[in-house]
Amino acid sequence: MNGPRFNEFIQSPKVRVIDQDGENLGVMYTREAMEQAREVGLDLVEVSPNADPPVAKFLDVGKFKYEAQKKANQARKTQKTQEIKEIKMRPNIDDHDYDTKMKAIHKFIGEGDKVKITLRFRGRELSHGQLGMNLLKRVQDDTAEIAKIESYPRMEGRQMLMVISPK
Length: 167
Hints:
Elements: E1 14-18, E2 24-29, H1 30-39, E3 43-48, E4 55-59, H2 61-78, E5 84-89, H3 95-110, E6 114-120, H4 129-142, E7 147-156, E8 159-166
Parallel strand pairs: 1-4, 5-6
Antiparallel strand pairs: 1-2, 3-4, 6-8, 7-8
């Protein structure tokens, strides 16, 4: 069980106790600490079991669980998943088309996504693999200041692949 442990799980005969206001009440017997927690209408929760002696705190368990759930939901909402965007090119791409593709790559990298650049070879283009390598080298040079190469150019069948990710 991860996280805090509640009254019935505390194993140690003595614990360091912290009250609901964050004040250190010192080291006391577990039963005595449970009694004090009950008197103020709270539960005794072990927050640091690996300490010597373990640290326990007076908490309202329901409220604690609610706050933890709220924090987890908020963290999940704000986290951004990194996607892989794909840009497809041909080895003999025109300059204007290349510039358009580079704008898209810069936009994707700026948003924090990885970019997979796919070069498709058709027919006899396959025998001119150096054209593809030169094009991917050009992409690499144009994105050098904002991105790093995650996987270097490699052939997969009739296409050449390269993956770049934000620095």
